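Table 4 source record.
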Amino acid sequence: MMIKVSKERLSNQVYAILKGMIADHRFNPGTRVNVEQLAKEVGASRTPVWEAVHRLVQEGLLENIPNRGVFMCALTPGQAIELYTVRETLEALAARLAIQNMDEKTMSKMKKCLEDQYEVVRKEDLVTYSRLDYDFHAMVYEASGNRTLQEMLEAVKNKMRPIAMHITPILASLYHDHVEILEAFQERNPDKAEAAFRKHNHQMIVQIQASMKTDEWKEAPTKGANLT
């Protein structure tokens, strides 16, 4: 029984590591994931690694193709638009709920996060911005105080794999959306907070639609982003 529990814990640890790799853009959309190499890298046997891979396959992050191997799933433009459409509504609700619970400590953290975002936007560091973006949104989700809503938003976030699309042209604008969101919380203005979140998500939808008219979606795997 103890061995079984130990294996389960190891599988969870490997799962967390692999999920972190995906969040950090370790695997480009559509590329093959070498499971044998991953097992060596994390210092685990193949069994817990495959268990973790299967979980990620069930979540839609990885795809196991018979006789070919495991691949990082690539979002289609249509799937990405669906996700941002759903997230727009969920985040609008989270913003309204968070207004009621937002405290000075959380807003100070959000302000510090924005200061860091300003620097990485200036450097066009998409990977670091993605992490900071996640932290910023997560603070709002937590402040909503609604666990069911948080779980739903986390599920949407998990499906937002690195998107093969250039977002550098709108990076500064996305940052300014975050500034507007913080201002809304400081003013305790639920309408402004909701509007800022809706604009934020809609901006990504418009960018995705624009990318569909060119070959940009297929050409940009190394400049993808899992953010905003």
